[in-house]
Every structure is written in C-alpha cells, then in structure tokens.
Model the fold of this input.
Amino acid sequence: MVYVWLTLFIVLVLLFWALNLIGLPGNWMIVAIALLWTFFGPHDYQFHWIVPVVLVLLAIIGELIEFLTSVLGTKKLGGSTRGATLSVIGSIAGGLIGAVFGIPFPIPLVGMLIGSLLFAGIGAWVGATLGEKWVGKPMKESVKIGGAAFVGRVLGTAGKLMIGSTMVVLSIAAPFVPLFTN
Done:
C-alpha cells in the first residue's frame, strides 16, 4: 500500500507542475501536497519539516520571477492596468487552449507542453493588445505592449517551470533520502 501512496504522490506532484503551463498555481499545489505528505504520508517516507519550508521559498522565487518578467516588461513600455489584467486572462485562456490542442509533435506530451506555453504567450499578447486599445492607445503602441506581454509571459513561465522542476525533484527525492525524512 505504501507504494500506491508514493506513486499517487509522484503523479500529483508532476500534474501540479504541469498546471504552471496554463497559468494555475502549480508550484503552490506542490507545496500543499508536500505539507500533507509531511504530516499524513506513510511513516517511513514522511518528510522532515525543512522540505516544505524549502518548497515555500522556491515557490515564492518562482512567483517573483513570473511576476517581474510579465509585469515589468509591459509596464516599461507604458502598459495599462487594464492591458495587464486582460493579458493575464488571455494567458490563462491561451494556456488552456494550448494544453487541449497542443502542437503536433512526435513526442507525446511535449506537443501539449510547447502548445500550452506558446498559446499562453499568444493569449497574453492578444489580451494586452485588446486592453491597450480599450484604453485608447493607438494600434501600433498596443501591439508593441502586447509583444512585451508575450515575451514576459513566456520567459516568466519558463522561469517558474525551472523553479518548479527543482521543487519536483526535491519532492520526489525527499521521501527516499534519509537526510530529509523523519
């Protein structure tokens, strides 16, 4: 039964990591499942309390990377709050569309991951462009701000995914490393 719980834990951690691609708080869900595992996981495989603390710190770093790359690039070009808000909404919608339809790619799952990341960026571009047009900016300037939202979203998500990958490795390895178990 222990191996069933370990397998479920690993599958959930990987699934939560993938949710970052569509703009959902996957890293924070990894933190939540790690906290549950710390207190309720099989006794021989429970984490030491330091593991969730490190995961929280990593999740904060991931959020900062995503926020700073997404917002600062757009704001640097004079983007509005409405453009930034629609950029986030468009990014989530684009990420979901990309996850469902993906990109034809010979390696399973990779097409979905690339599609989700690309469509999230396109959604951010469309949302920011529409938001800037809505507040009355000229089309050329709106498209330029939308382009910054695209680049910021792709780079921010990539950074957050890298941090999330570290969280995945730590979460999956910790139950088997004596240093990290109770």
Remarks:
- The first helix runs from residue 2 to 19.
- The chain has a mean pLDDT of 88.
